[in-house]
Fold this sequence. Notes:
Blueprint: E1 9-12, H1 18-29, E2 33-36, H2 41-54, E3 61-63, H3 71-83, E4 89-92, H4 107-135, E5 138-143, H5 156-173, E6 181-188, H6 194-207, H7 211-216, H8 218-221, H9 234-244, E7 254-257
Bound molecules: nicotinamide-adenine-dinucleotide.
Amino acid sequence: MDLELAGKRVLVTGSTSGIGKAVATAYLKEGAVVYINGRSAERCQVIADELAAECDAAGRAKVAAADLSSAEQSDALISQLKSEGGVDILVNNTGIFEVKAFEDISDDEWMHYFNVNILSAVRLSRALLPEMLERDFGRIVNISSECAIKPLGQMVHYSVTKTALLSLSRALSELTKSKNVTINSVLPGPTWTEGVENYFDTLAEKEGKSTEELISNYFADHEPTSLLQRFVAVEEVAKATVYLTSNRAMNGQSLRVEGGIIRAL
Ligand code: NAD
């Protein structure tokens, strides 16, 4: 099936590891031009070179380094992208998560979570959406989480920001009526990444267990409703993301890629 993504210009935020890296890989395999983003330009270049070789994509894996918690760095990134031809597809993937007791989350930390998990997407969408509407082509995908609709007590701040992303996506999609521009969310369930490895180290410490024990019993103890009974693979989230951006009729949607954890129709 031709997903008609060849030559499209794609920015995947937070694409030096985990889900973002897999999404960048999937777009490169579809023939798109992909900007790799992370905080370190050196690391972005290493990953761009690695993916260009892996995907036979010489010249199509580009670097767009910026710390997206900073409005200034975000502005600089937007200027770079506009001067190099703009963006057809924006995947707002950057996100932070950590297990933390609700009573220990300070105002500063709440603001940091809002800044990285929501404002990063707001800033890029605000800058890039008007051009997408004018050009009459554009796709935005916000990588939310299954816990946007099944919030977690051990990560209240994270859950709140992921729910807000769903509202951001749907509200922005309301601005696309009759245009070939779509704005959707992807809700991954527990997906095996470096970020999740760190998450489990902290959770194991909090529960007084070894990380190995926690992981091997995780689905039985914590996610008994999962139909998958294993971690989602980053490639599975990437496939869903690419699929969403290949179809104009899918707009204002929240696509769950969580292995059936959420028992709902
Ligand atoms: P990860 O920690 O493995 O990777 C995060 C990426 O974001 C890295 O490339 C990192 O360099 C980048 N990043 C972090 N802060 C940044 C900043 N300020 N500016 C620019 N880049 C920054 O994370 P992951 O597990 O791949 O998660 C990716 C996204 O998927 C996040 O939004 C996360 O909330 C969401 N998600 C993950 C899971 C999961 O189980 N892994 C589940 C649901 C949702």
